[in-house]
Specification:
This protein is an alpha/beta fold. It has 9 helices and 7 strands; from the N terminus they run βαβαβαβαβαβαααβα. It binds nicotinamide-adenine-dinucleotide. Nicotinamide-adenine-dinucleotide binds next to helix 1 and helix 6. It comes from Hephaestia caeni.
Length: 276
Amino acid sequence: MRFAGKRAVVTGGASGIGRATALRLAEEGAEVLIGDVDEAGGGALAQGSGGRIAFQRTDVTKVDDIAALVAAADAAGGLDIMVNNAGAGGARDPIDTISADDWDRTQALLLRSVAMGIRHAAPLMAARGGGAIVNTSSVSALGSGYAPTAYSTAKAGVLHLTKMAAADLAQHHIRVNAVVPGFIATNIFTASLGIAGAAQQQANAMIAAGAAKAQPIQRTGTPEDVAAAIAFLASDDASFITGTSILVDGGLTIGPRHSWDPDTPSLFAALEAFAK
Ligand SMILES: NC(=O)c1ccc[n+]([C@@H]2O[C@H](COP(=O)([O-])OP(=O)(O)OC[C@H]3O[C@@H](n4cnc5c(N)ncnc54)[C@H](O)[C@@H]3O)[C@@H](O)[C@H]2O)c1
C-alpha cells in the first residue's frame, strides 16, 4: 500500500499503459483521477473501480482541460502524483513531406501536453510540500526505426523536459522522472491507423505475436510491465531518484539483433566462417 492517502492523476488512463497504471496505483491505495478523450473507456474503468478511480473527460492538447483535471484532483484533497502518459501515433509523414500543422498537432499531443501537465501540477504539489511526476517517453526517443519522425522527436523532448523539470522543481521537493517503454501490446498501433471493431482484435493479436519476438526477452511486453515502473518512480521507494528514466523494453535497445538472437548471424560471424 505504497500510495495509501495519496491522490494521483493519470492522463490517457482509459486504455493500455495509463489504464494499467491507474489500476496499479489504486490497488496500492491511491485515489486516482484519470483524464482521457475516451469517455466510454474511462467511464467504464471508473465505474468498475469501487470508487477508487474517477474519470474526467480531458483532451491533453487543450491546456484548459489539463488545468481543470489537476485542479479537480487538488480540490478533492490534494495532488501527490501526476502521470503524463496520454498519447497516440501522431503524423506519420517523413520530414521531407510533413506539414507544419501536422507537426504542431503531434508535438501538442505528445510533448506540449507533458510540459503543461507538469506546469499545472507543479504549483499544486509545491503548495503541499512536494510530489512525484512520471512522464511516458518511448524507445523511439533513442533512435530511428521504432516510430514516425514527429512522434520520436516529441518523445526525445519528453526525456529532456524530464531532466529540466527535475532541475526546476527539486527545490519544491517534486521529483520528475520518465519511463521509456519498448514494444508494448496496446491499442496505440491500431488506434493510430484507424483500425477498429473486429479488425482491431485481429490486428492486436498480430501485434502481440510480433511483440513476443521483437526483443531479447521473448515475450510480449504488457501495460502492467510499464505500470510497475511508473508506480516505482511515483513511490517513496524512488525518493532519491529524479531527472532520469527507466527503460522497460525487454532489452530491445541493448544492441543489434545478431548480438542476442542466435538465429541472426552477424557480419563478423560470416567473416570468421570465411577465414576458416
Ligand atoms: N504501446 C507501446 O508500444 C508504447 C511504446 C512507447 C511509448 N508508448 C506511449 O505510452 C503512452 C500510452 O500509450 P498506450 O500504448 O497505452 O496506448 P493506448 O492507445 O492504449 O492508450 C493511450 C490513451 O491515450 C488517450 N489519448 C489519446 N489522445 C488523447 C488526448 N488528446 N487527450 C487525452 N487522452 C488521449 C487514448 O484515448 C488512450 O486511452 C503514450 O504516450 C505512448 O506514446 C507506448
